[in-house]
Amino acid sequence: MKITVVGLGYVGLSNAAILAQHNEVVALEVDASRAELVNAGRSPIIDADLEAFLERGGLDLRATTDQQDAYAGTSFVVIATPTDYDPDTMHFNTTSVEQVIDDVARHAPQSTVIIKSTIPVGFTERVRQAHPDLRIVFSPEFLREGRALWDNLHPSRIVVGDTGSEAKEFAALLLEGAEDGDVPVLFTEATEAEAIKLFANTYLAMRVAYFNELDTYAATHGLDTRSIIEGVGLDPRIGSHYNNPSFGYGGYCLPKDTRQLLANYDQVPQNLIHAIVESNTTRKDFIATDILARDPKVVGMYRLVMKSGSDNFRSSSIQGIMKRIKAKGIEVVVYEPSLDDDAFYHSRVIRDLDEFMSVADVIVANRHAEELETVRDKVYTRDIYGRD
């Protein structure tokens, strides 16, 4: 069976990899350099498991920039293009998804479209009405950046927003590519599947916000954050997971998904969803104020990535801290080895770690790093457990 995957980000590439174990998979990518890397057995994104998976070979996977090549004779088209949140419209920008659906309608109307991109509640029904001759299914992804392949090989669940035969066939393809045999599978209507995705990510954001506000309280009153978290987590209904304080939730998914869910609550009574979104701003304000209380002359930002094991800077919480500190006129320098430019938002990028540690009075790190141990007295972090 031929399957087309559109978009080679972490969602598209990880799905392409697991599906290519047992099917012919052609990835359609607008960035020719990304396509070339995949064709050479290399990953264009940082994900250790994915890199090793591609390098070992044995996958029926190739990438192309040619639409006709990608769509010819395909049975499924998996859409994994970005849907960034647009603050002007207060909704996801679904233009890329809609464009792919238009392309499929022209080049592969016989195929089933599987939307993996995160979309607003009600989107699938809208595009179905616009393309009544196409089979369009939404199947949300639940992947962590930096662990995308692992989460596809060992999925917590598979959700497919359709109950027809094509939906069941696609779920079977995902199960075939997984290494676990007891994966829960849920078939729902499309709109419910869209809501599952947004509510799941907003719950995760709520949990991050909760433990961050616990930490803010403890720091303000001179209390031991770890003791409080561990005592709270002993309740089995709460548990000792996903509880490590940070500078705020960030990355590609949680900030935009919480805002999109808030927008979907228009005309629906709510307090909690709005509070979750606002709490992230409050946390960054607190962290920046706490850093400035040290009266630094030069603040060093150690790594800009959203989480360890990822190369994604998008909406990383440390950038929010950086902007707040710069707004107070404090010099900021950045240590981020993956940056090619010599400046980031008009702040000097220092690639030599020793120089960086020497220049900065305070080193801001969202997560502990062994290479900062020699200057531990300079490091500002709220990390307790050394994990995301």
UniProtKB/TrEMBL annotation:
Catalytic function, reaction form: UDP-alpha-D-glucose + 2 NAD(+) + H2O = UDP-alpha-D-glucuronate + 2 NADH + 3 H(+)
Keyword terms of this UniProt record: NAD, Oxidoreductase
Pfam families, sorted: UDPG_MGDP_dh, UDPG_MGDP_dh_C, UDPG_MGDP_dh_N
SMART domains (UniProt xref): UDPG_MGDP_dh_C (SM00984)
E.C. number: 1.1.1.22
Highest taxon of the lineage: Bacteria
Signal sequence, start to end: none
InterPro entries (alphabetical): 6-PGluconate_DH-like_C_sf, 6PGD_dom2, NAD(P)-bd_dom_sf, UDP-Glc/GDP-Man, UDP-Glc/GDP-Man_DH_C, UDP-Glc/GDP-Man_DH_C_sf, UDP-Glc/GDP-Man_DH_dimer, UDP-Glc/GDP-Man_DH_N
Chain coiled-coil ranges: none
Keyword NAD appears in the UniProt entry: yes
Enzyme class: oxidoreductase
Domain UDP-glucose/GDP-mannose dehydrogenase C-terminal: 300-387
Claim: Oxidoreductase is one of the keywords in the record: yes
Pathway(s) this gene product operates in, as recorded in its UniProt entry: Nucleotide-sugar biosynthesis; UDP-alpha-D-glucuronate biosynthesis; UDP-alpha-D-glucuronate from UDP-alpha-D-glucose: step 1/1
Family affiliation: Belongs to the UDP-glucose/GDP-mannose dehydrogenase family.
Protein name per the record: UDP-glucose 6-dehydrogenase
